[in-house]
C-alpha cells in the first residue's frame, strides 16, 4: 500500500472515564499523534476527577459534548440511552467539524456509523472489543428479550455499515462474528498497549490484578494459593496480593480466605495506578495471576509481561494469544484450566524456579511484550488500518432498505427520549 500523507482522525467514544476501553482509546490517540497524525476525541461524558491524565492535561484534544439525556432512569434502560446519547454526539459532530477529518474512528457503539457515512461521506472504522458480550443464548425473561431484540438488531445492522472493524484479539473477532451472523467483514486485530509507569514487600509475592467482580473469578487465585501453602512448606513466605479498585465482591473473598485459614489485610489506596505499577515492578513479585476465563483480550497479562513477570492465566480467550506456554524453551507463562488444584501445581512450579530460569523468563516476556504489544506496534498497526480505510475511495451510500430500516429504528427508540 502506498503510504498516504498524515491523517486527520476523530475518535468517537461514549464515556471517557477510567477503564480498559478508555485506556485503549487514549493510547491509540497518543500513538497516532506520535506518528504525526492529527487526532481529536469526541465524547458524551468525561468527569475531570475520574479520567486519565492525558485527557485532562492538554496532551490530547478532547471535545466533551454534554447531551440533554441521562445515562439511565433509576438504573434502567442503559442501552437505549447509550444509543440516544451517541446520536446526539453524532449530530453535533456532523453539524460542526466531521467533514474536516479524513477518517472517523468509532469506539464500541455503532449507532452513528450510517449517519457519518451517508451525510459526511467519510470512511468509518469501528473498534468492537470488550463491548461484545456473551448476552445471547442465555435464559432471559420475555420482557428483557423484547427490550433487547430491537437494540441487538440495530447494533448488528449499524455494525455492518462500518468500512473496517477492529478487534482487540482473535478471540474477540470470533465472538463478534458468531454474534453478528450477517457480518461479512474480515475483522482486523490490533492488540492494545498496556500503560506501565512507576507497596513493596520483601516477601515473595503472587499478584492478581482484576476488578473484584464474580466473573473475574478472583476466588480461583485464593483457592489455588491455599492448596499451594498446604502442600508445599517451602512457600510459607509467599503472599498473595489481590489488587484493584472495585470491591463489590470483597466480602465473599474475605470469607473465602477465612475458610481456608489464610490471614489477610485489606488496604485502601487513593493512588491505585501507582500501587498497581509498584506491585508489578517490585523485585519480590514472582508472577502475575490472571484469573478470568474467556476474556476478549485482557490487558493484565501484557502488563505483567512488560514488567518481566511470568503470567499464569486460564487457557481460553485473549491470554492464549498473548502468552506462550509451549514449547518450554519459548515459554512466557502458564495457560491452565481454571481449577484450583491445577493452578496450585503451576504455582508450585513458579515458586520453585531457579534464579537463572526466572531471569530468562523475564527477558523473554519483556521482548515479546515490546515486539507485539508496545505503543509503537499498536500505533503502526492502527495507522495501516486507517490508511487502508482512506484508500478505499469515495463512500457508497448503504442500500435503500438497510438505510430505511436503520433510520426508522433510531427514530422509534432514540428521538422520543429527547422530548
Overview of this protein structure:
With 419 residues, the chain is an alpha/beta fold. It is 42% helix and 13% strand. It is built from 14 helices and 12 strands. The protein has helices at residues 20-34, 78-96, 113-120, 142-159, 170-179, 218-231, 250-259, 272-281, 299-306, 319-322, 340-351, 355-373, 375-391, 400-413, and strands spanning 8-13, 38-43, 61-64, 103-107, 123-127, 164-167, 188-189, 205-209, 239-243, 285-290, 311-314, 333-336. The strands form 2 sheets. It has a 7-stranded parallel beta sheet with strand order 3-2-1-4-5-6-7, sandwiched between helices. Strand 1, helix 1 and strand 2 (38-43) form a beta-alpha-beta unit. Helix 1 (20-34) packs across helix 13, helix 4 crosses helix 14 and helix 9 (299-306) packs across helix 12 (355-373). The longest helix is centred in the first third of the chain and has 19 residues, at 78-96. The N and C termini lie far apart (48 Å).
Main sheet: which strands, in order across?
3-2-1-4-5-6-7
Distance between the termini: 48 Å
CATH class of the largest domain: Alpha Beta
Q: Structural class of the secondary elements?
A: alpha/beta
Beta fraction of the residues?
A: 5-15%
Please mark out the parts with pLDDT under 50 across 5 or more consecutive residues, or reply none: 129-138, 195-200, 415-419
Produce a short descriptive summary.
The chain is 42% helix and 13% strand. The longest helix is centred in the first third of the chain and has 19 residues, at 78-96. It has 14 helices and 12 strands.
Amino acid at each position: 500500500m502506498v503510504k498516504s500523507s498524515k491523517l486527520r482522525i476523530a475518535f468517537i467514544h461514549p464515556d471517557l472515564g477510567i477503564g480498559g476501553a478508555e485506556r485503549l482509546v487514549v493510547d491509540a490517540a497518543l500513538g497516532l499523534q506520535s506518528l504525526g497524525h492529527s487526532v481529536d476525541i469526541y465524547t458524551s461524558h468525561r468527569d475531570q476527577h475520574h479520567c486519565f491524565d492525558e485527557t485532562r492535561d492538554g496532551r490530547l484534544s478532547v471535545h466533551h459534548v454534554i447531551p440533554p439525556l441521562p445515562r439511565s432512569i433509576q438504573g434502567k434502560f442503559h442501552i437505549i440511552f447509550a444509543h440516544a446519547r451517541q446520536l446526539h454526539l453524532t449530530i453535533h459532530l456532523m453539524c460542526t467539524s466531521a467533514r474536516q477529518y479524513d477518517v472517523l474512528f468509532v469506539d464500541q457503539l455503532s449507532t452513528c456509523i450510517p449517519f457519518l457515512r451517508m451525510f459526511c461521506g467519510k470512511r468509518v472504522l469501528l473498534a468492537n472489543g470488550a463491548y461484545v458480550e456473551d448476552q445471547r443464548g442465555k435464559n432471559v425473561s420475555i420482557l428483557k428479550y423484547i427490550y433487547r431484540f430491537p437494540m441487538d438488531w440495530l447494533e448488528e445492522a449499524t455494525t455492518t455499515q462500518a468500512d473496517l472493524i477492529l478487534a482487540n484479539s482473535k478471540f474477540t473477532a470470533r465472538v463478534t462474528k458468531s454474534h453478528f451472523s450477517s457480518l461479512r467483514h474480515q475483522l482486523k486485530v490490533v492488540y492494545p498497549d498496556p500503560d506501565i509507569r512507576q507497596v513493596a514487600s520483601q516477601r515473595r509475592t503472587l499478584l492478581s490484578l482484576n476488578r473484584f467482580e464474580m466473573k473475574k473469578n478472583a476466588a480461583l487465585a485464593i483457592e489455588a494459593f491455599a492448596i499451594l501453602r498446604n502442600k508445599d512448606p517451602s512457600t510459607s513466605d509467599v503472599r498473595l496480593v489481590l489488587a484493584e479498585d472495585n470491591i463489590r465482591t470483597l466480602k465473599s473473598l474475605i470469607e473465602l480466605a477465612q475458610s481456608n485459614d489464610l490471614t489477610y489485610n485489606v488496604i485502601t489506596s487513593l493512588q491505585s495506578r501507582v500501587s498497581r505499577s509498584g506491585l508489578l515492578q517490585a523485585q519480590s513479585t514472582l508472577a502475575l495471576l490472571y484469573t478470568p476465563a474467556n476474556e476478549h483480550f485482557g490487558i493484565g497479562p501484557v502488563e505483567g509481561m512488560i514488567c518481566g513477570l511470568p503470567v499464569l492465566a486460564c487457557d481460553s480467550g485473549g491470554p492464549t494469544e498473548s502468552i506462550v506456554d509451549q514449547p518450554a524453551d519459548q515459554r512466557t507463562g502458564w495457560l491452565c484450566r481454571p481449577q484450583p488444584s491445577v493452578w496450585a501445581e503451576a504455582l508450585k512450579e513458579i515458586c520453585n524456579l531457579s534464579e537463572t530460569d526466572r531471569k530468562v523468563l523475564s527477558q523473554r516476556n519483556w521482548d515479546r511484550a515490546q515486539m507485539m504489544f508496545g505503543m509503537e506496534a499498536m500505533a503502526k498497526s492502527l495507522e495501516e488500518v486507517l490508511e487502508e480505510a482512506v484508500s478505499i475511495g469515495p463512500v457508497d451510500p448503504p442500500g435503500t432498505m438497510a438505510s430505511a430500516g436503520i433510520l426508522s429504528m433510531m427514530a422509534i427508540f432514540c428521538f422520543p427520549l429527547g422530548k
